[in-house]
Amino acid sequence: xxxxxxxxxxxxxxxxxxxxxxxxxxxxxxxxxxxxxxxxxxxxxxxxxxxxxxxxxxxxxxxxxxxxxxxxxxxxxxxxxxxxxxxxxxxxxxxxxxxxxxxxxxxxxxxxxxxxxxxxxxxxxxxxxxxxxxxxxxxxxxxxxxxxxxxxxxxxxxxxxxxxxxxxxxxxxxxxxxxxxxxxxxxxxxxxxxxxxxxxxxxxxxxxxxxxxxxxxxxxxxxxxxxxxxxxxxxxxxxxxxxxxxxxxxxxxxxxxxxxxxxxxxxxxxxxxxxxxxxxxxxxxxxxxxxxxxxxxxxxxxxxxxxxxxxxxxxxxxxxxxxxxxxxxxxxxxxxxxxxxxxxxxxxxxxxxxxxxxxxxxxxxx
Length: 366
Prior knowledge:
Layout (H helix, E strand, L loop, with lengths): L10 E5 L2 H6 L6 E6 L32 H18 E11 L4 H10 L3 E10 L15 E8 L10 H7 L8 E4 L23 H11 L5 E4 L6 H8 L3 E6 L2 H12 L23 H6 L8 E3 L6 E4 L5 E3 L6 E3 L1 H9 L6 H4 L1 E4 L2 E4 L1 H11 L1
Parallel strand pairs: 1-8, 2-3, 2-7, 4-6, 7-8
Antiparallel strand pairs: 3-5, 4-5, 9-10, 10-11, 11-12, 13-14
Helix pairs in contact: 2-3, 5-6, 6-7
């Protein structure tokens, strides 16, 4: 969905039951959902540190259910409503812990969602296990799922690679828990919300699976992290929250967020979405002349351009003819090759990849 379609409803916080509110949305009107539902932690009494100080954990009534059957029913209800609101090519992210995420995953599959990844959020500063009876619980799990196996979902691969210092992003994310100045607190200094998520986590999720102007929905808005990050990143957003006190905190927080003024900085261009330019077009249009010599890295391999846009090379074992990719692979004895980045031209003594010519032609044509 394009940006223009969502203008006029850039963002709103609504109070009430998320199931009813999601059912009230137009069908297939949401592009991405991030859900941080109750975990049903099933805590037995208060937890204290070795010095007998009380741990400020999750003891809220909204996280308590009578039994697992009640939790499963709740999960099925909200996921069904979310599925109705989600576009056919939309995706949903659900975060949880070992207490609930496996039940959530099974219900997601039962409802027809297609799981794309499970992402492990490794906490660089987790809370210790004070009783010393289990491993320190140092991660949470996010399930990323499309509406169906046939969904043409958004994945901004290049952006994720850029965020990771030009390395392919892995499914284990090392991010600190929310703390310091980011942690919202009430007048007494206590946490305003017991499960506030770090903005860095939502930044990565929203950057990965949505485009500027698309609608991001958080059915369990809490302190408003999802909406705050979505607003900053130029996404439209909707937040549902049952607790009036949390909704007020979220509204105040979101109001303080300044969206990025230069919208050109938000543009995302994935290589697979760019118009295809055959190598032969460079020859047809005179950007490369038949007989031009191309060089591999370090000038270890050479090939000549033929009038039909194929290459011929005697580098390596034997003679090779074929596409820029086939000949690039053959001279190296490799199973595959990206000829656009492998082959170079000599321009005043400097090696220039032929991809530069492709980008030039693409800019002229499109």
